[in-house]
Amino acid sequence: MRHLILLFAMLIAAPSLIACCMVPKTYQGDVDQSEQRVLIVHDDGQQEMLIQVNPFFKPLDSLYYPTEIKWVITVPNRPDAYAEADKQAFYDAADLNRRLQDLARKQYLEAFPPSNDVKSAESARALKSGAAAALDISEPIQVGNYEIYEVQAKDGRASLTALNTYLADGGFPEEDPDHMAYFVDNNFTFLCMTVKPRDGSQTLAEVLDMHPLSISFKSDKPYYPGKFSSQQGNFSLNLSLITSEPIDKDSWRAIRQRLSADTPQYTNLYTDIDLPDTTYAMFEKSPKAGEHEAVKRWYVNEMHSRGFNPIDEETGKPRIASWEDDVFFTLGSKKDLPPDWYKGDVLTGGVKVLGLESGSFNNLLLYGGLLLLGLGLAGVVAIKSSKKPEPEPEPEASE
Q1: Residue 319 has pLDDT above 90, yes or no
Q2: Distance separating alpha carbons of residues 9 and 25, to the nearest angstrom
Q3: 201, 12 contact by CB (below 8 A)
Q4: pTM reported for the whole predicted model
Q5: Which residues does 334 contact at the CB level (< 8 Å), separation at least 6?
């Protein structure tokens, strides 16, 4: 399997490649990442990933902000497509998960009414540089205001020095060779990305609201790029997964612990109703565009972490630096399905549950209601028109 490293670069005035969470050495100040948002949609070996970061600056001089910042993330295969995306997709995915969690709690109470026997109730729960000769560097790929270069090492570890030189020439901090070796040994590809501001500013603002970037790539398992984030501080993470197969619960628990994350009460709740339009929009440039419509059931999961990369007291290094691999979610089987009492959001016979937040379903209810109202009015008119008018009384004869 070939892997990818995305090298994000955010450029305002300088021409070098840059991105998020690393400031130039000459900058008198620091940068932190307040939050990272990720939405993953996975189906049959193809992943659509939406990612957004929210960096902010802490200058010693309150009037001075840097001209550039840098960041590195990873992806397991060369992307098939990129696109700028609507951040509303994050909120829609969170709403979908919230709706299914509320539905599951309601259905659980219907299946297991409250009992004074606490024990029995509980038991009922289921739970391009000078080193370019050793590197393969693509032509630039333009996506909105993102400019992307794909960079691969040609000769494994023999290209490691050249790769580090390339990164250093681009202004990135030097990486630990042992840390870099993992990515070279596994044929990762670096994507060096330059992002220019849409408003034409000459420097970065104190807080950046970056447009989410949608990336489509092949991956046997749903993947979150965490390992190459060791130098990005102890940032928070909001991660949503929408998959056509359930996630293996053992894998889910292990990753939850690894990311120091909180998760909702229920795992692998599914929806049989159309996903939000903002989620389907992630497929528009995918090689599987249109095929997602054949998926009749999607499994929805979510993780929230306040931070999983603190400095280890023993080693003095960020916790991620000790990771031996990156974050891949194992797909599950029937044993990982929700308990039998969970009936989903479609009742027997295909009748959809009322009170849902799905836009398409609400539209269906609206149009159906209007149709019934129209039929009702038409019926009233028909009944009135069918009645025979009563004859008017004859005028009395005048004397």
Answers
A1: yes
A2: 16
A3: yes
A4: 0.71
A5: none
